[in-house]
Design brief:
The protein is an alpha+beta fold and 309 residues long. It is built from 5 helices and 12 strands.
């Protein structure tokens, strides 16, 4: 990939909103401007198969590079090394100078399990716990000389890196027109699949997307072709509002921060998981039901969210 500004990266494996928003806020000031002085890649658990392999090509070559960009998915160095990573909630850690770099360990996994640590020039350390198909670590090479860092997205989250088809954290990208165009190309796709799954437009957690569909009064299995202009407008506006409230700090979702501390939710939305099945809809009081979609279950209110054919 030498010389490519935008390497082809599978972005399905990365933290989704709103957890990624919480982690971005922590990671950037802790890592940007620091130089990588050492790397550690070690296997600590033997499973039935190897997902990542005994080595990560290019990882050793990151040593000596100064981190010029960092967020919940990427580290980019001034030497052109782009580290892409994805771990489960709680398996990303930052250790200050003098603190023991003790990463969490999985107690049982089908795959081998690994620890990756980046030692930094101020004595701190950044580490990842990786195991199973839901985690990923790759190192790519990009031509930083071709990257115009002045041309940044409005929220400065992905100024020069691959992103979802539509970046809902960037109002200049998540416009009503872009959303309408995305849906028009997928007339036979359920709205929840068109938005929140691995093939969807957004990097957003499905339970949060289902809450947005609830307050938008749209059934998660409604086909894109059945949506009215008012439906699309409502989904767009509610998504912008909810994501904006997470970005501003007005809402905080439950997550494990980079120090390993469990952060309690504050003013969070209702995550539409199995926990809400059979409970009262927060809007009208009707019992929440479930329907299969995208290989899992989607939770909805049969009164607020009438399925359109």
């Amino acid at each position: 990939m030498n010389g490519e500004v935008f390497p082809i990266i599978d972005l399905n494996y990365r933290p989704n909103c709103p957890v990624s928003i919480m982690l971005d806020r922590q990671i950037k000031p802790m890592l940007e401007g620091k130089t990588i002085t050492g790397v550690v890649w070690e296997k600590y658990y033997d499973g039935e198969y190897s997902w990542h392999g005994e080595t990560i090509p290019g990882l050793e070559e990151t040593v000596g590079g100064k981190i010029i960009f960092a967020d919940a998915s990427f580290l980019l160095t001034d030497s052109g090394k782009l580290i892409f990573y994805a771990v489960t909630n709680g398996d990303m850690r930052y250790f200050q100078k003098g603190a023991p770099a003790l990463l969490p360990k999985t107690k049982k996994a089908v795959s081998h399990a690994y620890h990756m640590k980046l030692e930094l020039d101020d004595g701190s350390c950044f580490g990842l716990n990786l195991y199973g198909w839901g985690t990923s670590l790759r190192v790519y090479e990009v031509d930083v000389g071709q990257i115009d860092t002045e041309q940044q997205s409005r929220n400065k989250r992905y100024p020069f890196l691959p992103k979802s088809p539509i970046d809902i954290t960037d109002p200049s990208d998540f416009t009503l027109e872009n959303f309408q165009a995305w849906l028009s190309d997928k007339p036979g796709v359920n709205i929840v699949e068109a938005c929140a799954t691995s093939n969807g437009a957004f990097g957003i957690s499905i339970p949060v997307m289902n809450y947005i569909l609830l307050i938008s009064k749209v059934h998660p299995k409604t086909k894109a072709r059945a949506l009215t202009s008012a439906d699309i407008q409502s989904i767009h506006d509610n998504t912008c509002r909810i994501i904006g409230e997470y970005q501003s700090g007005r809402r905080i979702c439950k997550h494990i921060d980079v120090f390993g501390k469990t952060i309690k939710p504050q003013n969070d939305v209702l995550w539409m998981t199995s926990a809400v099945f059979g409970t009262a809809c927060p809007v009208c009081g009707t019992t929440i039901e479930a329907a299969p979609a995208a290989g899992t279950k989607m939770y909805f209110c049969p009164t607020c969210q009438v399925l359109k054919k």
